[in-house]
Amino acid sequence: MVSRYRSGARCGEEHPVNYITQRLRSPTAPTVDTPARAAVSAGDCGLLLIRLTFGLLMAGHGAQKLFGIFGGDGLTATGKGFAALGYRPGKVYAAIGGGSEFLGGIGFALGLFTPLAAAALIGVMINAMATVSGAHGLWDAQGGVEYSVCITVTALAVAAIGPGKLAVDRLFPWGKGGWAEAAVALLLGGIGAAIVLLIL
């Protein structure tokens, strides 16, 4: 039998072990089908929920200041409150703050220019913490920074993660998030807040 295999090898016949090895490596070997990735994942829906909740609530806060809707005081009364905090002229700063909340919130909810929308929200929250809530500790029940910290961290996290597939930004390079997008949101928000605080 040994001589038969040897002679077969000399005549170009495949050794049984070689034949089996080749069959196992063959592309015709059965493969396990992997399920196709869903077009929209649960993570995309979760990001949409976060963006809509925080974005629309922040836009509502801005609308209270700018337009006096949703129980807000409107621009004139809000401006007086800003002036009492040292933001003068109060009406101008009220328009800047309200506009940042409104436009940033709308952009955040839509997933449109997400890093810039996040920067607008972060800048407003830094100012709020520096001039109003920072002196009252952490918890919101005592007027502390709890609420502002949550908004800031959420905005920064979504800029880093990306707004998901259910967003306008999915069409643009920055729509996937990343370190650069998070840095833009944090730096622009911080610089904007610093400029406002320095010229008070």
Q: Which characteristics define this entry?
A:
about 200 residues, mainly alpha
Total of helices:
8
Which term fits the overall shape?
elongated
Low-confidence stretches: 4-9
Distance between the termini: 99 Å
Q: How many E-type strands?
A: 0
- Class from helix and strand fractions: mainly alpha
**Gyration radius over CA:** 29 Å
Share of helical residues: 55-70%
N-to-C series of helices and strands: HHHHHHHH
β-sheet strand percentage: under 5%
Mean pLDDT across residues? 88
Major beta sheet, specifics? none
Q: How would you sum up this structure, described in words?
A:
The protein is mainly alpha-helical and 200 residues long. The chain has helices at 2-10, 16-25, 42-67, 74-84, 90-110, 114-133, 146-161, 179-198. The longest helix is centred in the first third of the chain and has 26 residues, at 42-67. The model is unreliable at 4-9 (pLDDT under 50).
Give the SSE layout.
Layout: H1 2-10, H2 16-25, H3 42-67, H4 74-84, H5 90-110, H6 114-133, H7 146-161, H8 179-198
Provide a compact summary of the structure.
This protein is mainly α and 200 residues long. The chain contains 8 helices and no strands. Residues 4-9 have low confidence and may be disordered.
